[in-house]
Fold this protein.
Amino acid sequence: MIRMEKIRKIYSTGKVDVEALRGVNLHIKKGDFVTVIGPSGSGKSTLMNIMGCLDKPTTGDYILNGTNIKNLNDNQLSELRNHEIGFVFQNFNLLPYASAYENVEMPLLFAGVGGKKRKQKVEAILNKVGLSDRMDHRPNELSGGQKQRVAIARALVNDPNIILADEPTGNLDSHSGREIMELFVNLWQEGHTIVMITHDPRAKEYTDNFVNITDGKILREELVA
Amino acid sequence: MAEKLNEFMKNMLLIRLFVRELKKERRKIFLTIAGIAWGTLTIILLLSFGQGLSTQMLRGQKGLGNNIVLMFGGQTSMEYKGLPQGRPIRFLDDDVTLLENSIPEIDNITAEYDQWGTVYKYNDKAVTERIRGVSSMAYDDMRSHFPQKGGRFLNNNDMKERRRVIFIGWELKKQLFESEDAVGKTILMNDIPFTVVGVLQKKMQMGMYGGPDANCAVIPASTFRGIFSNYYLSRIIYQVNDIDKSKYVEQQVRRVLSRKKQYHPDDNNTLHFWDTIENAKQTRIAFTGITIFLGVIGAMTLIIASVGVANIMYVTVKKRTREIGIKRAIGAKKSLIKTQFITEALLIDLVGGFIGASISWLIIKAVQSIPQESADFGKNMALQILTNPEFDWTVAISTGIILGLVGLLSGFFPARKAAQVDPMVALHYE
């Protein structure tokens, strides 16, 4: 599903060039639950951004579902983000003026899904994450855990091939954190492919597929405690 | 169809969100909309009053006549065929016939006699005013001498049979008859009885010779000659069939009369022309200029207001950087972000424009309804000219075009900036 070959990413900040990724090779199969760990500044986020098609590698090939994203223009990348990828962020990134329902509806609108079908999908997915009674609430009327559920529902609503989560439990108390983690595990068990950046030690209760990244390189691809 | 509906729904949601967000910036939005409304108001009022001014001026000029040229005799300033200079050129009755027969571009032509100091009497009232004798029944169209209801202008039989019929101005009628009906009554003109056949309809008259038509009376030229025994005409008035040919016709008139009256064809002091067609053209040109000028002032105001809209949109882009990033991350294309911001700016402009247009419409209606004392043209000419703003399609279209341009202007640049937001950066933007 995801194949990364010799990915390098160099940021030019005026005079200094920062090499955030120095030749990353990574294979993720359908149905994997991969956890990315590493100290801050190690290049985790850069890796996530490239994986999520928000950014392009400086050199190397990223093949997502058989498509080399090097060859895509901005519109095609937008479509890819819309159809293939679901994002979940540490700080939720919900639209503050939109209700839970509207937040989840948004990707479907961009995808051009018709009215009736859209309604069904949004309701079903909110039901699935256990928020059917909170549909009309705005983000500021929801708890952290509930916000993250809305974000997960938004990530799932377009049936993406892969879910990218960046510290999804980082802003949550331990109880909600556990709930969210369990939700991800459920999704994984249903067959979703999940890539998650996390420091959460609970992660190892659920998956042993770790990617440890340090200084822009992957150290070992398994079993890093 | 379904696709269109979906597109519409999409925009509806975006607009709904926009409106919610705007509630947070109510004051700023209010001021921005007020700015656009004010600009629209200014431009519409300026254009409408300009339009009204121009129409009234042209109407006022029509009061003198409808595409006519008045021709007066002068004197020779060149020797010609042994004849000395300084010879007066005066018109005779048969000059009119000659011009009519030899210049096909002349549609209507009339002789006009003019006499001051005529005493009009009716019952115990007496007024001293002017009298005119005219030879063409088309004088009504040429000199805007249309009768009030119940009366008529002089006709061919009046002319041929030298009838003692008279067509009087409305002021003269008022002085003699007050509110009494005048048509059919007999008045005395220099103690000769005349039957009133019509009263001049009220009109706005800006150009005049001798005095306003309102205080004057008109009788057939044939009758006039019989009474006053004038040998020479006071002037000749003609109407040309093509307003672009008035200069050409003037040359023809000079040429035709030079042979008959034996003056040098290049001697321009022999005949004097008062070309109302040229005047009207110049007025029209002048007022086109004034309208453009007013429009530009209005447009400037509106553009300044649009800078306000652009400014608030820039602020919005800045404030919503993260929101844009989120939308981009979940699959919104650049074009959609752009459309959204342009739509929002247009919305502000449209609401402002609509408010401005409504207020100006009310103002125009209010001004138009100021009673103009429906009489006394001439006396209240200034009021007359000012109280007739016109909101017509030219005004509407110009305002619409300018508003549209302003809307695009105020939306385009912020929208472009919004589309260039890097989602990756924006998501980490606090």
